[in-house]
UniProtKB/TrEMBL annotation:
Pfam families: DGCR6. Residues 179-204 are annotated as: Disordered. This is Protein DGCR6L isoform X1. It comes from Callorhinus ursinus. The gene is DGCR6L. PANTHER family: DIGEORGE SYNDROME CRITICAL REGION 6 DGCR6 FAMILY MEMBER, PROTEIN DGCR6. InterPro entries: Gonadal. Belongs to the gonadal family.
Length: 219
């Protein structure tokens, strides 16, 4: 009798697992439909089914949550670093303007053109320095975020999550955990670093959705 009871319970558990797998697969298929058709073609039924299987026991949800926490801490740190640099530049500009105004007020009229020319050269040198420091900071941010993407890829690959492995190939955006990766693949970030942040001063950090797997939305 106990043998039959055990077999029945196993059958029930199997049915529950199958139902849960179907629910996860349906959710993934719904998410894929929101993507451009060119990217939908890369996510086969087999890949989505394997991904749904990996999500069954809840371990992947915990892994993704941990990755999200690390990601958010990294984003906050990088954002604060850039904000501090912007504040330093603001103070530098204000001090330079004050210095120039005081010098002009103390300058004799016939020497003013020479002084203004020298001040213009100094201003241009300071602005060049500011641009270079901002560019260096943006490159640092992009490279650090790329490293985090690689860490996430490696972690999810080791966890057996289908479709994840370390890559910087911009033609394989779905190998990253980010739902936004289709718009900003990893390889593109490194190229964009030299151009500064697109769309706003803090956009490199705030637009970087590294880990938006369906697992992250698990209640």
């Amino acid at each position: 009798m106990e043998r039959y009871t055990g077999a029945f319970e196993e059958a029930v558990d199997g049915a529950r697992q199958q139902e849960r797998h179907y629910q996860l697969l349906s959710a993934l298929q719904s998410l894929v439909k929101e993507l451009p058709s060119s990217f939908q073609q890369r996510l086969s039924y087999t890949t989505l089914s394997d991904l749904a299987l990996a999500l069954l026991d809840g371990t992947v949800f915990e892994i993704v949550q941990g990755l999200l926490e690390i990601q958010h801490l990294t984003e906050k740190s990088l954002y604060n670093q850039r904000l501090r640099l912007q504040n330093e530049h603001r103070v530098l500009r204000q001090a330079l303007r004050q210095k120039h105004q005081e010098a002009q007020q103390a300058c004799r009229p016939h020497n003013l053109p020479v002084l203004q020319a020298a001040q213009q050269r100094e201003l241009e040198a300071v602005e060049h320095r500011i641009r270079e420091e901002q560019r260096a900071m943006d490159q640092k941010i992009v490279l650090e975020l790329d490293r985090k993407v690689a860490d996430q890829q490696s972690t999810l690959e080791k966890a057996g999550v289908a479709g994840f492995y370390v890559t910087t190939n911009p033609q394989q955006p779905f190998c990253t955990p980010g739902a936004d990766a289709a718009d900003e693949p990893v390889g593109a970030h490194q190229e964009a670093a030299a151009e500064g942040p697109p769309g706003g001063e803090d956009s490199l950090v705030t637009r970087w959705g590294l880990c938006q797997l369906p697992a992250a939305r698990h209640g």
